[in-house]
């Protein structure tokens, strides 16, 4: 558990700036043509803090995402593969469904993270301070701009993105676990 927490902290610390740049380049009418142009402009205009404005939201999103993801996968494995044998079909289905449930449940946090990263102009115009900072401010701004339904904008795309990702991840994990366990058993039997 502690290793997973530290890994998430370090992963998100390294990846958050990349996510900020990616999302700003993906925005409709983005003024950025190249990655380094975006990095320089954000650094110059908003400072280093802009690359970490959504860091706590990212961490807050990853904790429930992973918890829901693992619990759903384990629950589905109990239903589809109660003897816990290597079964690629059950691993793919359980992984895809677990990713879908976790993605749907954490979409409001993802919407807020994206707003913090992009500082989208429509949202900024509804924000008195000029910059959206912090998760609470992002949650308020999303609600002011679009109501409750705004928290679930892009939920279908997020679910569609996560399903193959988590299906592949679980099937590869279970495959290597099976191979390594099989090798260990063969070594023990050979002694």
UniProtKB/TrEMBL annotation:
GO MF terms on file? ferrous iron transmembrane transporter activity
In terms of InterPro entries, this protein maps to: MCP_dom_sf, MCP_transmembrane
- Offer one example of a GO biological process linked to this entry: iron import into the mitochondrion
Q: Where are the Solcar repeats?
A: 1-79, 86-179
Q: Which Gene Ontology terms of cellular component type are present? A: mitochondrial inner membrane
Q: Which PROSITE patterns match?
A: SOLCAR (PS50920)
Q: Which UniProt keywords apply?
A: Ion transport, Iron, Iron transport, Membrane, Mitochondrion, Mitochondrion inner membrane, Transmembrane, Transmembrane helix, Transport
Q: Which domain of life is it from?
A: Eukaryota
Q: Which Pfam families match?
A: Mito_carr
- Signal peptide (residue range): none
Where in or outside the cell is it found? Mitochondrion inner membrane
Parts forming coiled coils: none
- Tell me the membrane topology, using the record's own terms: Multi-pass membrane protein
What catalytic activity is recorded? Fe(2+)(in) = Fe(2+)(out)
Family membership: Belongs to the mitochondrial carrier (TC 2.A.29) family.
Role description: Mitochondrial iron transporter that mediates iron uptake. Probably required for heme synthesis of hemoproteins and Fe-S cluster assembly in non-erythroid cells.
Name recorded for this polypeptide: MFRN2 protein
What species is this protein from?
A: Cephalopterus ornatus (Amazonian umbrellabird)
